[in-house]
Amino acid sequence: MRLLLVEDEIDIRSFLQTSLEEAGYQVEAAADGKTAEQLAIEGQFDILIVDLGLPDQDGISLILRLRQLGVRAPVLILSARRSVDDRVRGLEQGGDDYLTKPFALAELLARLRNLLKRNSAPGAEATRLRVVDLELDLLRREATRAGQVLQLTPQEFVLLEYLCRNAGRVVTRSMILDRVWGMRIQPDTNVVDVHIYRLRGKVDGQGQQPLIRTLRGVGYVLKDL
Amino acid sequence: MSLKTSKPVLRSAAWRISLWATLAFACGTMLVFVFLHRFVAGDIQRRSDAWLSGEVEVLGDVAERTPKDALYGRVVGEVAELAGKEVPNKLLAESSSNDSVFFLQTGGDGSLKLWVGAGTGEPNRAAILAIRMVPGQPTDLDVQGFQIPFRVASIRIDDGSYIYLGLSERDELRVLRSLRLRFFLLWLLLVLLGFGIVFLTTRRMLSHIREISEVASSIGHSGLNARVPTTERNDEVSHLALTLNHMLDRIESSMYQLHTITDSLAHDLRSPLTAIRGKLEMSLSATTQGEQAEPIVSAIEELDRLTDYLNKSLDVAEAKADALRLTRSEIDLNELLKIMIDLYEPSMSEKGLEIRLQRSGPIKIEADAALIHRMIANLFDNELKHLPAGCAVNLRVTADDDNASLILEDNGPGFDAEVLPHLFERRVKGKKSTGHGLGLAFVDAVTRAHGGTVSASNREKGGACLTVTLPLIPIGPPISAQAGV
Questions:
Q1: Chain A nearest C-alpha distance from B407 (Å)
Q2: CB-based contacts of A36, cutoff 8 Å, min separation 6
Q3: How far apart are CA A206 and CA A208, in angstroms?
Q4: What is the full DSSP assignment across B289-304?
Q5: Pick from B289, B320, B351: which residue ends a domain?
């Protein structure tokens, strides 16, 4: 996967480049709009990360210019601004995504994956998910672990489904709040942790291999062996 | 939201103003006319009196000098008839007939000696004898058979007989009547014209004022870029419009400055926060999970709290200045609370708290979903942090015609009495609170930004009660989606 990173802050650019390369992307980095434009014309990229506040031009102008030049790759917009520009909303509707600084790396990676998935041909939607001996029947809304049916509330099932779909990948608390409850909030309290704790109590029974792991300071991951 | 309701004309201020103005004008002109009329009537009376007195003296003189023979009646009668042709105020068209003047000579005993005029003169004589006439002073006289009174002057001549000269007041009254009629028509025309002019002018002026107030009242709701309409005229109303627009310019520019400041503050702080967070995450993934990771984990958590604090305080600052940008959409409060309770219930029961929602039908508001979510999360976080175990939180949503109220009650210790009046100010927190004192200030800020109110009290039975009131979606045409400023 070839990724073009356009970010003027050197600290952010360097840690993003390292992290994205670790995650398996081939990263080309640019510090301003002009360089980014040249790179985008010369090489084919699968995805772009563009910061809104560039020294020589507005990030949105750059994106619109690249679109005019025939660059079709989806864009993840990074912004440190408070308000979401109407033009950003326009791009969001056009299939691009938007992330506010500061962000968790896990969230950035998840959004990149979503953008790439959105742009690839949609495959047939799976009706069953399977992680180790945990099985989810998405039609009957039923989960089984080692053949045993788990007594889950509808909300717990949705949470488990989200974890299973991202098996092996880190999901943060705000990602869970966004995708499972549909709200972008930052509670001062451990509301998500309690949900995970309860779910873990039902999924990871005694003597079984623990599937839901907590990565402190980062989020949660459903282990995929 | 438009304030334009089709108000009936009869209840408009323009109608009232023109009615009063016209009334004053009509009364004034009427008063002027009454004076004028009295003056004219007096003058006409004086003229005819002067004529009567003069003529009666001449006739007396003639009657005295004329020998009392067979020709006496003819001579005096002719003189009297001649005099009748010189009647003042007489209309030309009626110069031929002469029933407006009569001449009467009576003897000292009241017997009729000579009569010149229409009819026999008997009723005139009877009428004259019925009243006491002072010679030389003209008097009004009602004669039987005549609708219009006569003005009669008398003189006593040397042979002891009396000479009376009567002049019908018909012409005089006709002059006055035609004066009154003309005036009345003119007056009516003037009053109607005046009313029309006043009504149209005030209505125009007031409609301009109404436009101004409509725009001014909509400005708070739909951003500050609208301006009140101005006109070319240089009157007070256009001056008011210009002043309002200048004021709006200044407010808009200070709003813009505030946005620029908060934006650049956010930007300047978020960029380094992003870099720090990134580096922390990288070092976290490099080290193994365990003892070593602990300081990094807590640093990340601190950093996230700092970010949240930054966002909240900027929101509160903007909301205090009425400059919070909203992206409104339709929200069903009951549905939202159900989801929120679903999210918070495990944490609550983990702490030994109970949370209940009294369900009712859908109650919809038009609000910024992200802000409302964060506001309710703040309220719930607050309960979660401050309620001792075993307490219960009761939630209900009610609605009246215009507003939805979210009422949150608990049976905990309630608010500290000294904190209660300042509950929604920044940095105010309870004695045992560990937060940064922004939670309820944020709740207040979001509510105000949506045109609502929030109030807090301690319940009589113990426990706290918080009421958040937000305007319902107005019935009627939906508000078009509003972009922020």
A1: 21
A2: A4, A6, A30, A50, A54, A62, A66
A3: 5
A4: SSTTHHHHHHHHHHHH
A5: B320
Q: Please identify, among B291, B320, B349, the residue that sits at the C-terminal boundary of a domain.
A: B320
DSSP bridge pairs for B453:
B469
Say what the ipTM of the complex is.
0.86
A102 in reach of chain B (CB within 8 A): yes
Judge: B373–A184 Cβ closer than 8 Å, yes or no.
Answer: yes
Phi, psi of B203 (to 5 degrees): -65, -40
Q: How confident is the model at residue A117 (pLDDT cuts 50, 70, 90)?
A: confident
Q: Is A190 on the interface with B (CB under 8 A)?
A: yes
For residues B301-330, average pLDDT? 84
Q: Name every chain A residue with its beta carbon within 8 A of the beta carbon of B301.
A: 217
CA dihedral A53, A57, A62, A64 (to 10 degrees): 100
A12, A82, A105 ranked by CB distance to B271: nearest: A12
More confident of the two residues A145 and B237 = A145
Cβ-defined contact of A103 to B273 (cutoff 8 Å)? no
In CATH, A2-119 is 3.30.930.10: no
- Mean per-residue pLDDT, B337-346: 93
Any chain A CB within 8 A of the CB of B220? Answer: no
Mean pLDDT of B220-247: 78
Dist. CA B328–CA B365, nearest whole Å? 9
CB-based contact, A216 to chain B, within 8 Å: yes
pLDDT over 70 for what percent of chain B?
89
For chain A, say whether B338 makes contact (Cβ under 8 Å): no
Strand (E) or helix (H) holding B385:
helix B369-386
Tally of domains in chain B: 3
Residues B135 and B29 in one domain: yes
- Are residue B384 and residue B452 in the same domain, yes or no? yes
B285 and B394 in a common domain = no
B105 part of a folded domain: yes
The domain in which residue B301 lies consists of: 236-320
Same domain, B66 and B134: yes
Cβ separation of A188 and B484 shorter than 8 Å? no
Identify which of B272, B311, B346 has the shortest CB distance to residue A198: B346
Condensed to tens digits (0 to 9), the pLDDT of residues B427-445 reads 666 656 656 678 888 899 8
> Residue B372 — pLDDT band, cuts 50, 70, 90?
very high
pTM above 0.90, yes or no: no
Q: Which residues of B touch A220 (CB under 8 A)?
A: none
How many CA atoms lie less than 13 Å away from B468 in the CB half-sphere? 25
Mutual angle of helices B293-320 and B439-449, in 10-degree steps: 40
Q: Are residues B310 and B344 in the same domain?
A: no
Q: State the CATH architecture for A128-222.
A: Orthogonal Bundle (1.10)
pLDDT for the residue A212: 92
Model pLDDT, residue B485: 36
For chain B, positions 365-384, list CB contacts with chain A under 8 A. Answer: 369-370, 373-374, 377, 380-381, 384
* B positions 303-322 inside 8 Å of A (CB): 303-305, 307-308, 311, 314
Contact status of A90 with chain B (Cβ, < 8 Å): no
